[in-house]
């Protein structure tokens, strides 16, 4: 059975997925759609027929999205910048948390008697594992739970939401700074500077591999990027 509310919702979703229309644009288009339907229903068309004809007269979703893309150029630029900044923040937050866990892992490893490359390996493995988990968490939150960014926008629009987001960023900095200075200080105080040097030198060499992480991520982005559709005649 034809469900008008569901069909209109699907129609709006297809338009919003193009990311060229804001909510007011969608509301205006929906209003035009319903007005057109009212006129068609007065001519004895069924509700389903009126919807199909009205949607056809307004234009397909791709054409409408292209038209609004021309109007909302500043909106598209802001969205691109928004996603770029989100990507940078996701990388930095994942790195900060991973660094914190790696330093704690190094501390625990040394307290349990591990030294040299063994302790450095424990540090790097924990850092890599936590980094990957953080990226997966960001993926789940942004792609699966909030694909169009509406939840984040609602949070960022309120004063309380802005404060929470800023506090989260500040907390990341505090955790990162604490992890950099506290575990090494504890290791030096417990084992001495000479033994700490023997532990940290292998870790510093292994950190060189971590510097290539952006290259690895970029390679994954290039590999996972969907291929462009080839237009057929």
How many distinct helices? 10
How do the SSEs run, as a string of H and E? HHHHHHHHHH
Q: Compute the CA-based radius of gyration.
A: 27 Å
How many DSSP E strands? 0
- As for the number of domains, it is 2
Report the β-strand fraction as a percent range: under 5%
Question: Which consecutive residue ranges, at least 5 long each, have pLDDT under 50?
Answer: none
| Quaternary structure state of the chains depicted | single chain
For the biggest sheet, the summary is: none
Overall outline: elongated
Helix content: over 70%
Distance between the ends: 36 Å
Question: Which structural category fits the helices and strands?
Answer: mainly alpha
Give the overall pLDDT as a whole number.
81
Topology overview:
Layout: H1 4-17, H2 23-41, H3 47-58, H4 61-71, H5 73-111, H6 116-145, H7 150-157, H8 159-191, H9 193-210, H10 213-224
């Amino acid at each position: 059975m034809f469900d008008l509310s569901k069909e209109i919702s699907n129609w709006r979703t297809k338009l919003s997925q193009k990311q060229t229309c804001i909510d007011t644009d969608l509301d205006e288009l929906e209003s035009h759609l319903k007005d057109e339907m009212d006129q068609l229903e007065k001519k004895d068309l069924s509700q389903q027929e009126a919807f199909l004809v009205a949607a056809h007269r307004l234009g397909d979703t791709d054409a409408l999205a292209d038209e609004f893309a021309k109007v909302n150029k500043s909106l598209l630029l802001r969205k691109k910048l928004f996603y770029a900044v989100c990507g940078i923040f996701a990388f930095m937050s994942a790195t900060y948390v991973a660094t914190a866990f790696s330093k704690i892992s190094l501390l625990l490893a040394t307290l349990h008697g591990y030294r040299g490359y063994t302790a450095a390996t424990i540090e790097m493995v924990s850092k890599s594992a936590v980094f990957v988990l953080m990226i997966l968490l960001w993926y789940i939150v942004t792609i699966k739970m909030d694909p169009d960014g509406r939840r984040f926008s609602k949070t960022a629009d309120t004063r309380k939401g802005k404060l929470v987001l800023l506090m989260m960023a500040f907390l990341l900095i505090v955790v990162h700074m604490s992890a950099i200075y506290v575990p090494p200080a504890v290791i030096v105080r417990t084992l001495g500077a000479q033994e700490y040097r023997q532990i940290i030198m292998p870790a510093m060499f292994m950190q060189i591999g971590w510097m290539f992480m952006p290259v690895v991520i970029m390679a994954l982005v290039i590999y996972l990027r969907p291929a462009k559709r080839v237009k057929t005649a």
